Amino acid sequence: MKFCSLYSGSSGNSIFIASENSKILVDAGLPGKHIEKALSEIGESPKEIDGIFVTHEHIDHVKGVGVLSRKYDIPIYANEPTWNSMLKSIGQIKEHNIKIIDGKTVSIRDLDITGYRISHDAIKPAGYSVVCKNKKVCVATDLGYFSDEVRDALIDADVILLESNHDVEMLKFGPYPYNLKRRILSDVGHLSNEDCGKAIVDIMGSNKKTIALGHLSKTNNYPDLAFKTVVNVLNENGISTEKDIVITMAKRDMPSVYLDI
Fold first, then answer.
1. Which of 88, 185, 188, 195 has its CA 20 to 30 A from that of 217?
2. Tally of CB atoms within 10 A around 58
3. How far apart are CA 55 and CA 143, in angstroms?
4. What does the pLDDT average to over 4-24?
5. Minimal CA–CA distance to 116: which of 130, 131, 99, 129?
């Protein structure tokens, strides 16, 4: 399998995952031309994308979905409430490219893609697990809190894009209005750096994982701060980032974390 975070952050999100025979995107939250450019930079073409899997209807996850589907005849997969909520943002889609997935595993040749519930202020948000043979990749961002269902989905994964959205003190004393701060800190908001570290401790298993920290806030976080906070939590719990786990950063505005699994 191959994994690459094309973009990750409040400005837009898109993740490329591929096997020998299948290629998909999880979200396309920037204009189509940006997704095309990012794919080109890693040697891929949108013409070969077999499906776009949408986590939820917020614009930083769906902005380019409709354009790419219409231009390249790409199927779009989402649960029914998400479909109903994102239609106004993505525009008209060909009937054969409307794929409703409610609690089902979708198989695209040698990739098996399964959605799982997450807590966020969207109509029915989802994370995705992608399995090929004995390898598993998970996308888990926009998490108000780290639920048991998310833990169960991630615990046996080899690669995880995991949210490390904000530093709590930066958020509390930052420029956001009070209501927005409350939303981000709530159980339907976003996962903090410290809670991200605790979540990683909770999913440590026998297989060595690669964790890409993603969906960082531009206003309430810094990549170095997110990384150091998470690593400190791991070290406090006896987990070595040299031998037990690999921690890396998903960049906001360019392809990063390109992995051959």
1. 88
2. 21
3. 11
4. 96
5. 129
What are residue 78's DSSP bridge partners?
Answer: 100
What whole-number distance in Å separates Cα of residue 49 and Cα of residue 111? 13
Q: Which of 247, 183, 232, 145 is nearest to 10 (CA)?
A: 183
In the block, which residue shows the tokens 């997110």?
226
Whole-angstrom distance, CA of residue 64 vs CA of residue 74:
12
Query: What angle, 0 to 180 degrees and rounded to 10, lies between the N-to-C axes of helices 223-236 and 193-202?
Result: 40
**DSSP 8-state secondary structure symbol assigned to residue 131:** E
* Distance (Å, whole) CA 114 – CA 231: 29
Instruction: Identify the pLDDT of residue 46.
Output: 98
**Helix (H, G, I), strand (E, B), or coil: what is residue 217?**
coil
Q: For residue 68, give both structure tokens.
A: 């790419």
pLDDT for 236-255, tens place per residue? Answer: 999 999 889 999 999 999 99
